[in-house]
Amino acid sequence: MGDSSNSNVQKAEELKLRANDAFKANKFSQAVELYDQAIDLNGSNAVYWANRAFAHTKLEEYGSAVQDATKAIEIDPKYSKGYYRRGAAYLAMGKFKEALKDFQQVSGL
């Protein structure tokens, strides 16, 4: 067990780096696919969920973005980017009250 889980974590990190590159190149669909694979290998990393949420937001897939960001927050309630990504998706959907709540979490108010 130890070995395979370790290599999964490593593979997931490599996929994340490739996803980040795709994202920087504005290839958001590709980024989502790579984050999908990273999450399959290591679903307990909040960063992958928050990053995929951001890619979904860029694709105007706000419902998916909210779901992913919510998952990131569940995994790590102290991870402020999760709240920020969800707030941004809510804002894009015109859900200002929800967005405000999330942004207040980010700023620690």
How would you describe this protein?
- This protein is an all-alpha fold.
- The protein has a single domain, classed as Serine Threonine Protein Phosphatase 5, Tetratricopeptide repeat (Alpha Horseshoe), CATH 1.25.40.10.
- Helices cover 82% and strands 0% of the residues.
- It contains six helices and no strands.
- Helix 5 (80-92) runs antiparallel to helix 6 (96-107).
- It is globular.
Helical segment count = 6
Which structural class best describes the helix and strand composition?
mainly alpha
The CATH architecture designation is Alpha Horseshoe
Number of structural domains: 1
Number of beta strands: 0
Name the helicity range.
over 70%
The helix/strand order is HHHHHH
Q: What share of the residues does DSSP label as strand, in percent?
A: under 5%
Rg of Cα set: 14 Å
* Overall 3D shape: globular
Distance between the termini: 42 Å
Spell out the CATH superfamily: Tetratricopeptide repeat domain
Overall mean pLDDT stands at 95
The name of the CATH topology is Serine Threonine Protein Phosphatase 5, Tetratricopeptide repeat
The stretches of 5 or more residues where confidence is low (pLDDT under 50) are none
The top level CATH class name? Mainly Alpha
Largest sheet: none
InterPro entries: SGT, TPR-like_helical_dom_sf, TPR_rpt
Keywords: Repeat, TPR repeat
GO biological process, one term: post-translational protein targeting to endoplasmic reticulum membrane
TPR repeats: 12-45, 46-79
Précis, in short:
By secondary structure, this protein is mainly α.
